[in-house]
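ok so heres the complex, two chains, lmk if somethin looks off
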Amino acid sequence: MASYSIWIALVLGILAYLGIVLNLGPGLWLQEALVVGVITGLIVGNVHLGLTIGATLTLMSLGMWTYGGATMPDFMTGAILGTAVGALGGGETAGLAVAIPASILMTQLDVLGRAVTTVFIHAADKYTERGDIRGVTLMHLLGQLPWGLTRAIPVFIAVWLGAGPIQHIINALPHWFMHGMQVTGTMLPALGFALLLNQMPVKKHWAFLVIGYVLYAYLKLPIIGVALVALAGAALYLKLRGSEARAES
Amino acid sequence: MPSPEDGLEQVAETAAVTPKDVRSAMWRHIITLQWSWNYERMQALGYMWSMLPIIKKVYPNKDEMIGAMKRHLTFYNTNPQIGSPPIFGATVALESQKMGDAVDSLKIGLMGPFAGIGDTIQGVLVRPMVAVFAAALALAGSWVGPAMMFVLGLIWCALMVPLFYLGYRRGVGLVDEVAGEGVLSKVTEWATIFGMMVVGGFVPSIMSGLTTPLQFHKTVEVAGKATTKTIALQDTLNQILPSLFPVLVVGLAFWMIHKLKLSPIWVLLSLVALAFITGAIGLF
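and the predicted structre for the whole thing:
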């Protein structure tokens, strides 16, 4: 298969729309790269690729959050596009080569969507002045359009018209580029870890970081084992500190 | 355990507002709060629209109704899933009792701290920990990973109902209850320690693919005969510091963010450049 039908493109566009609008409302986290990657994988017939691309993007996003309405890379759209293009034959390397730049470029459209929606609150002001509840309701409900369409349209166009050509370009890329992308894929989770650590009191609690590392890297404990030790370690630490504080007072 | 509906009766008696109106307001808030999110007043329109079932009942007079609607069209933004439900619940209670004038100060007073608490719980404590487990499972080929992420989304959504009624029952008292909360800091510290240890284990686990194929050839004389021995650098490293490269790269990224104060996008681009360079010279 060299490209996708307009129907697949449409379904993926709707998926992107639903993901972001649900995220605005009840949450449900359809916009998580991991979730949307697997669903895209199901649609294009390569679940394993969806898992891999989704997981890699999720790891990059570990310490990221839209604090106070800040924009962050759009890993949802990246996961959909990356999985769709990779499933045409290029696999993980081709998928990541599309997913990562797409996630970053989409931040521009996120800003656009957030800005355009301003139109609706100005209209709602006017309807409020007249006490027109229907008008206000309509303005609020239509507010989702800029949000959804800034995701759905790029996904639809890129999958329908772009996936084939993008795949051709990727096939023609030299070996050093594909190898570089491969190394990039293994290296990028470092960004997520670094962002996460930046929010944690590393100076105060660095010892726990080392313990976790030793448990896995030297003692070869499975990661669930590490988590259980962490659970016990945290409980023990707080208990000991609690009794220390009581002894002092 | 008190049911979420406890306390509804007393409030409902003082105004024409019925439990059904309250539920309707709650669902509007849960499902659509940020649909019209914009840079100018952020969640304001969603908040006002969610409040409409109450406003319509309490202010049958049109001018008063418009006044109440305008009051809620002012800037509002907080964490939508943990922060906003209790605030909204409290203001629904106030509006129901025609105490709308107190609403502004309550919203402004609580949205900042609740944004901080909610974003920390979701963005720092819970989501990264679940995400790192889920991603590890997914990389191993398991669908349990994405299922975990989705279930976490469902849990946040389900929590919005009791959080709303918590705010609704406490009303203004919510402010005092949030201030001087010792439990939260304890849970935060516990989660931090847990998180640090798990991250310590996840760095070498998830980035285990980052190994070097470099080999050194060394000619040694064994019993008078020259033989070439091949030493793989990675094997040697594994005996001293396993996962040295993952730790170095995470350390580098942390340094760029923490000390150089670079934005995530620049760190990302630097890492891509580093990957291409080290890939080209054959280190990886």
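quick notes: Chain B touches chain A through 104 residues (CB under 8 Å). thats all i got rn
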